[in-house]
Amino acid sequence: MPMSSPILRIALPGPFPEPLDYLLPEDQKAPPIGARVEVPLGRRRVIGIVLQQVAQSTIDASRLRAIIKVLDDTPVLDPELLGLIEWTARYYHHPIGECLATALPVRLRQGHPAMPSAQRQWQITEQGKITLPSELAARAPRQAELLGRLQSTGRLSAGELGSAGDSRGALQRLVARGDATLSEKADYGLISGQAEQPPPALNAEQKLATEAIANANDHRPLLLEGVTGSGKTEVYLTAIQEHLSAHRQVLVIVPEIGLTPQLLDRFRQRLKGEIAVMHSGLPEGERLNAWLAAQAGQADVIIGTRSAIFTPLPRPGLIIVDEEHDASLKQQDGLRYSARDLAVMRAHRLQIPIVLGSATPSLESIANARAKRYQHYRLDQRAGAAKPPTLRLLDVRGADMQDGLSTALLDAIKKHLNAGNQVLLFLNRRGYAPVLICHDCGWIAECSACDARYTWHRGRNRLLCHHCDQDRPIPAVCPNCNSVDLRALGLGTERIEAALDTALPDIEPIRIDRDSTRRRGSFEQALAKARQGGAQLLLGTQMLAKGHHLPNVTLVGIIDADQGLFGADFRSAERLAQLIIQVAGRAGREINPGEVLIQTHHPEHPLLQTLIHGGYPAFADAALSEREAAGLPPTRALALLRAESTQRHNAARFLEEAKALIASTPHIELVGPFPAPMERRANRYRMQLFVQADQRGQLQSLLERWLPSVARSSLARKVRWAIDVDPADT
Ligand code: ADP
Ligand code: ZN
Ligand code: ZN
């Protein structure tokens, strides 16, 4: 092979630790770095990304194969984004090709041209926003359904309608009524911010934070710790607008549950610029459009969930991560990345400001702020006239309870409803009851595939495993003793709903959980109903508890705080404290003062006591000391080597052998292997080995030396295994 024939190093999806080398045929023009190419792999053709052009390969040139086709003449990944993804691959010890596959929109991975598609799309009009779908429901159910969807998403594309035959006709009639408009131009599907609403005058705390974000001299990440309702979003909006005015792009990362039509409305009303939305629920075509709009510089603001961290930003100005403590920011399979941590790294590489906002920051971010690695700004006052809610524990030991509701809580509910206010009840478990038990022999309905009980879903009349999604009918008699006396044990939202029907027959509670909102748009409809005001009783899981501004709620009842008090995970306490404070934050968001009642059998528990008397900051103090004493993050760096197998001994032996591969190393401790808190899930046994290090750098260099030999070990092919750097849970 003559020296002149160039060799391309190409990252391919799959478990290849390194990019693979291919030849560029002489008649082909060399593709730029970051472009897609199609190459042969075994007998398949796959799409990869060009990472490098080299003069020589480590493989004998005669064995190299040639690329089939160059798909792009301009790169789909610019050097900055490519660099970030390469960093991600190194930090999380994940194959580069797989990291690229996670970062790229599916359509690009499949070889779709990197061009926006033309779209027929229906948009909601101002009139359509206030038309009640229920007005249409009787005569035109299809129109009502489509109007509901339009109200929740703002627009519908032809692709989203699927093949349902009568949709087009129903949409035509909505257009004729003036509730929707149809556009057919090829566009990126952006939302145009109109800045039609003036910003409120910021208070002193908000001003300080906004000025700090604008101060270009300090490139440390900024932690914005603001109690719920303190006006963090206003700070974001002000900071974002400054960057838009300077023609710079802003990337906003929000948790899955945080990307609501209300938030988008607020962005649209307050910002002047083009807004692209990205989340996993979008049809692939729209996701590609949003990504391309960002790449082309057409989108000024990109707001999206976790994977939006991999959006191209040709003119970057600012990154914001809202609810930075939220667990959904960490991917739990494949490339186990933290979008928050990558956002911090990306901002650092770009030398642009980054804001991490939360009412309940992660202990990691609080520790960073204390060590002065982050700037720390606090918003301790609620914005406007709202006052902080008062938190009180309701000791339910020995109390008279009706299906989980104490008399004291019921009395409080009645009082608030009678005053014309709204009540929000929180229980983080859907279904009727988490256990179905035989009263005669004690038999319990257990999932055959998991170490878990079935949850009884009365509405669906099924038993459902919340861990593997398996379901089955409810047995008529006990399979063990044939008794018909099967009873519900424990509480779920359906059961609370039923109890409320009995205790407060005049009130119709609005239940919001994954079961009650399975129909598209039903979640938004329920929230819209709640926002109409009037005495209303809301009941739900964390779907209801996070992020929503429900102005008329004055009482929040946490039905069962005990659930999370004794969790096996080292983050259980942190998660519970965050959840309680987030739920409590729904109370008293406007002029009416809020009250929060927390039912517990453990009123003396230190976590609850600290939260009640010192709030989240006091909890964080205590929790950080505990983590320090236990040598857990953020004090020490942690990675988990996870293994799962249908054979219990294989998973355990793989981890034992992996552990034996390294001699004892200073500053490093390998602990385990232990069974995962739920050892068997979906018929697989799950084990984990803890790798702890005093410093992140020590952990990284150990993983670099160790993992290649782990991959070569004899059992590595018999088990499913993964390394999880900075695990979110165990
Ligand atoms: P957070 O994001 O911290 O929960 P928001 O930014 O949503 O808080 O603010 C809570 C409410 O207070 C919103 O209705 C918002 O419009 C209002 N608000 C925020 N800042 C101010 C301000 N400086 N003056 C008046 N109202 C404000
Ligand atoms: Zn029985
Ligand atoms: Zn199961």
Automatic annotation (TrEMBL):
Gene3D superfamilies reported for this sequence: P-loop containing nucleotide triphosphate hydrolases, PriA, 3(prime) DNA-binding domain
Cofactor(s) this protein cannot do without: Zn(2+)
Primary role: Initiates the restart of stalled replication forks, which reloads the replicative helicase on sites other than the origin of replication. Recognizes and binds to abandoned replication forks and remodels them to uncover a helicase loading site. Promotes assembly of the primosome at these replication forks.
PROSITE patterns per UniProt: HELICASE_ATP_BIND_1
Family matches, as InterPro entries: DEAD/DEAH_box_helicase_dom (IPR011545), Helicase_ATP-bd (IPR014001), Helicase_C-like (IPR001650), P-loop_NTPase (IPR027417), PriA (IPR005259), PriA_3primeBD (IPR041222), PriA_3primeBD_sf (IPR042115), PriA_C (IPR041236)
Highest taxon, organism lineage: Bacteria
EC number: 5.6.2.4
Record's protein name: Replication restart protein PriA
Domain (Helicase ATP-binding): residue spans on this chain: 213-379
Transmembrane segments: none
Pfam (any one): DEAD
